[in-house]
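Quick one, tokens below:
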């Protein structure tokens, strides 16, 4: 990846927002609808009902996509110029911001389960002056079908939430009919747990995928429906 002065300026501006929010250490009470930690072994009911947690903006902003991984996502969008981007797992909004800055002609449709995290993300998105990001708040299981119907066609998808084997495979199968002929689907944390490793092994063998990049953390699928 060849970084231009413009790219470096964009990265520095985004990371400045992240550092400011981390410094504020804003208290946040949230419901975690995902798999939690790899050792949690949550069942479907626990993941759907969510686990209440108290945290702060420092901890939340520390776990999002950053450094070379955020830059990889940025360059994938910059080079491929997708018009319609679906993101599952907004978190603090920084991956949305990176994608927004990579292609200002795109629209990012991003889904977050918890309303308090979504509010934090909304503030960050406003600070970054990103007008091409549309936020949805709700559990993926409840609203993904409606979001997909609204978008209709997806050129690029970033799956970064609900790190559960069965859920990850399910979401891929849900979005697959909406993917355009040469879409790209990126999965985060493909080595996060044994379940995610198994999900990645299954997904990358799907007949709609022409080739994959396995970066240990990110898994990138290049779709070919031709």
């Amino acid at each position: 990846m060849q970084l231009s002065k413009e790219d470096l300026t964009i990265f520095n501006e985004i990371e400045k927002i992240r550092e400011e929010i981390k410094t504020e250490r804003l208290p946040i009470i949230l419901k975690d609808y995902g798999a939690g930690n790899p050792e949690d072994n949550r069942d479907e009911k626990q993941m759907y009902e969510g686990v209440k947690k108290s945290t702060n903006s420092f901890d939340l902003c520390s776990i999002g996509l950053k450094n070379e991984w955020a830059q990889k996502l940025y360059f994938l969008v910059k080079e491929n110029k997708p018009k319609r981007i679906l993101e599952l797992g907004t978190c603090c909004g920084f991956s949305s911001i990176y994608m927004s800055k990579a292609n200002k002609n795109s629209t990012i449709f991003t889904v977050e389960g918890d309303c308090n995290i979504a509010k934090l993300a909304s503030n960050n998105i406003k600070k970054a002056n990103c007008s091409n990001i549309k936020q949805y708040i709700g559990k993926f299981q409840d609203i993904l079908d409606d979001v997909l119907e609204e978008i209709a066609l997806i050129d690029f998808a970033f799956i970064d939430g609900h790190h559960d084997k069965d859920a990850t495979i399910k979401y891929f199968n849900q979005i697959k009919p909406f993917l355009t002929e040469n879409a790209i689907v990126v999965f985060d944390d493909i080595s996060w747990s044994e379940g995610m490793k198994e999900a990645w092994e299954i997904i990358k063998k799907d007949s709609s995928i022409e080739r994959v990049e396995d970066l240990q953390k990110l898994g990138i699928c290049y779709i070919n429906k031709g």
